[in-house]
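Section 3.1: Structural characterization of target chains.
Under the original work plan, the team committed to producing a structural model for every single-chain target entering the pipeline before any wet-lab resources were allocated. The record below documents one such target. The sequence was received from the expression subgroup and is listed exactly as submitted; it comprises 697 residues.
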Amino acid sequence: NIGQRTILPSTFIGSRRDLTQHYEDGMAIVLNDGKPDIFLTMTCNLSWSKISSQLGPHQTPQDRPDLLTRIFRSKFEQLKEDVINKGVIEKVKNYIVVRAEIPKFEDEPQLHEVVLKHMIHGPCGTLNPNSPCMKNGQCKKMYPKQVYQETRQGNDSYPQYRRRFNHLISVNRNVTIDNRWVVPYNPWLLLKYNCHINKEWYRRMSKKKVIGRIYTVSPLEGEKFYLCVLLSHLKGPMSWEDMLSPNGTCFNTFKKAVEHWGFLESDNSIHECLVEASSLRMPYALRSLFVTILIFCEPTNIRQLWDDFYTYMMEDYPSTSVAATTSKTFLYRTLIAKVRSKGQIVLATTSSGIVVTLLPGGRTAHSRFKIPINVEADSFCFISKQSDLAKLIREITTIIWDEAPMTNRYAFEALDRSLKDILDCNAPFGGKIMILGGDFCQVLPVVLKDKTCDHYKIIILQNIMRIGDGNEPTKCDDMVKVPHQIEITWEGENSIQKLIRDTFPQLQSHTWDASYMVERAILTPKNEDVQKLNDIIINHFLGEERELLSFDEVEGDTHNLYQQEYLHSITPGGFPPHDLKVKKGAPLMLLRNIDPKAGLCNGTRLLCRGFFMNMLGVEILTGHNIGKRSFLPRIKHKTTESAGLPFVLIRKQFPMKLSFAITINKSQGQTILNVGIYLPRHVFSRGQLYVALSRVV
């Protein structure tokens, strides 16, 4: 808690800015020369003779970091000379350069000893569960490897090196190893430098279009930053006035223009969202939108929002002119009349004697329920189970208690215990409906995470559900061939277009058909393929396209280390895209639990009925609320550790994406009449193909 905080510059080795600069330099090299083929690492050997000969009495290598650094630097420069200038690896490219086996002692005794000393992983796993490479009971480096007779290309960029079966070799009296524990190495480099040098080969990935370093503008630079945002999003502006005039209104600053274009979050976006919704004159949907904003959008001035839009949200409620002091009594009278009109019994009570006269049939709570005057923590009401009052209590459905906050808590507890005893029911107040009124600012809040009753019914699966009950013939790697009756011959992009036409026939004639949209979907394993298919289909969809952009930021990034362009380019799992392209009548999928009771759950399929700058109008297509319409605003999404990002990304965007195509996981639990399955790669999880094929009725 002392000193002054400072930012380490890129000249400080190992600082964040130094690492960022090295990373950007590396990306520039990749852009110019392509991706690397060889990943070569070198580790200092503390047993080098040059190190041990320079140590003093009772000194260890750790005592002389200057000596280690100097000698390792000289070795490293010599390694670069051999690899870069002399081309030792290039000259032996026609031979086996990378090995992952323990050489025979009879053939190569020196290499045999060096490999056992420097190139054996771990051991870990059952041999050493406390090894640093262990995570969740497994080795992070996936050792021990599989035994292969020949080197072959793996499913990812890593090759599967030849590791032939050999007899176990004893490293010490407790550990024996074989070829499965060998780290890949280059024999020539290993013998020359006598240290750990890990050399692996990576399959060069397909070339992708990349852009070199772009110098961005910091938000701290004010108008320059907002001008940069305009130039990044507007296509072909004809003049300065064109950029400064969203919807025909000219603004005198770039910041105001950016906010009205919708490219940056406005300080008044929540208010504008409600303004747009109120113009549609749908009070029920407006109330639902208001609740959604309170839960997910974190408004700062809730009371002001309520006062501004109260009249719009209450338009479908009947209005009655009563005095302000009698409005609560009017509500009680209405409730009592409604309940009694159904032939049910309601008891009206109050804590104050003067208020009793205002309620029909009202009595004080102490008089009605015989609550002790001096009520204590363990008090009961003086009601016998055989009394007439007990019989009346068994017949009633509702109890109204006005001015409840004025009452001692022990009075409620006494009534609760008595009703449970009379009605033989352990539910609160014996299961009777309790309506409490008064100034609830005096009522204690609900105790969070209080005791709950956990009742679960466990259903055990008796039959294993797999393709063909696990009896279908398989090929290598346990892969099942799809029957040719349901497959489409692969002919490049033409096959994708055919899959779309077969799944969505005559799409342009059904742009507003909700039943047509809910009966069709294309399933694919990964989100990137879902995005690709949705982009293709939305371009063929009739109607005006609207690009709804998100507002992205990094939590706690006060120094703007992460540029907006980079944040816009990433879409973690469960996040909506930065650029959400929608058209009226297009199917959407909800990505968050907004209002489960109203049918707005994660995975609900929706139909876009209208879009605005700060709000989307949707119609529910699935569940028990089919046909119900609602409004959805932009809400904040935060990444978790499972996203694999070194920071917490906050994206404010509409919680949905197009659902012409959806992932197989999202389709689980849904029934779809017409399903197309797009498998550009193998399914990566057990049961996925079963889920995809079983979606059809």
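Residues 91-97, 441-453 have pLDDT under 50 and may be disordered.
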